[in-house]
Amino acid sequence: MIVCASMECFPDLPKDEVAGALVDLEYTAIELPVHASGVSWAAPGGIAANLEEAVEAFRDTKRLNISALSFDTEGSEAAPGSDAYYEQFTALCKLAKALRIVPIVVPAAEQGTPFNEEIDRLRELVKIASLEGVLVAMKTSLGCMSEDPDTAAVLCDNVKGLGVCLDPSCYIAGPWQGKDFAKIVPYTYHVHVRDSTTSKYHVRVGQGELDYGKLISQLEAAKYKGALSVHMPPLEDLDHKAEMRKMRLLLESLL
């Protein structure tokens, strides 16, 4: 396992300064979002328009290894399940193959989405990804079908090759808080970490309830060899870079 950090940890920095900030904090790897809105290294539609140019742009990471990409078209016309959505995902998979990146994190459908509709979407994503040697990691997120570990496991069981981007905070602060998520650990392709409590999704490092040692032991037992990706935006009145450094040191001390 390695420790990395998501670009989304620095929403207020210009894109070309994020990698340098992580190098200064002695991170060696980065997770890059490819989102239609919010913090993003590139827009999903732009990759499809010029793949070769995108490959070069994604290599400009100050020698940081890219541990994963995340894909989200929310806020664009490429609605999940549409032709444009799959075209943009296909282009991203080709980019991932060129850069030798294995996991792509995708959001799970919102609660209330018909189960079969979500199965069809995920199967198509996995089918596309498999052609390029890429793995699809469905993120466990609040407000989504994956917020219940039982449902996340059923989705993985029904979509051969699907895995999860395990975010333990979802099961600490969410409606299923305290529920054992051990059953989805074997499906883990990527991991997001931050400190959380039952009442707050994100708190200062060291003040939360995530048992890092137990999490790492569970991942090791499942032979997980991917990244532990720090995924925490700044907290008000705290030195964010100090928090980022503290989290890196904490995780590295346990590996």
Topology:
Blueprint: E1 2-6, H1 15-24, E2 29-35, H2 44-49, H3 51-58, E3 65-72, H4 83-99, E4 103-107, H5 115-130, E5 135-139, H6 149-158, E6 163-166, H7 170-173, E7 188-193, H8 212-221, E8 227-230, H9 240-254
Helix pairs in contact: 3-4, 4-5
Task: Outline the structure in words.
The protein has 9 helices and 8 strands. It has helices spanning 15-24, 44-49, 51-58, 83-99, 115-130, 149-158, 170-173, 212-221, 240-254, and strands spanning 2-6, 29-35, 65-72, 103-107, 135-139, 163-166, 188-193, 227-230. α4 packs parallel to α5. With 255 residues, it is an alpha/beta fold. An 8-stranded parallel barrel has the order 1-2-3-4-5-6-7-8.
Biggest pleated sheet: 8 strands, parallel, barrel
Quantity of strands, as a count: 8
Shape: globular
What is the percentage of strand-forming residues?
15-25%
Structural class by secondary-structure content: alpha/beta
State the strand order across the main sheet. 1-2-3-4-5-6-7-8
How much helix is in the residues? 25-40%
**Overall average pLDDT:** 95
N/C terminus separation = 7 Å
Unreliable stretches: none
Q: In sequence order, what are the helices and strands, one letter per element? A: EHEHHEHEHEHEHEHEH
Please give the count of helices. Answer: 9
Mind telling me the C-alpha Rg?
17 Å
Summarize this structure as a short list of keywords or feature phrases.
17% strand, 8-stranded parallel beta barrel, 255 residues, globular, alpha/beta
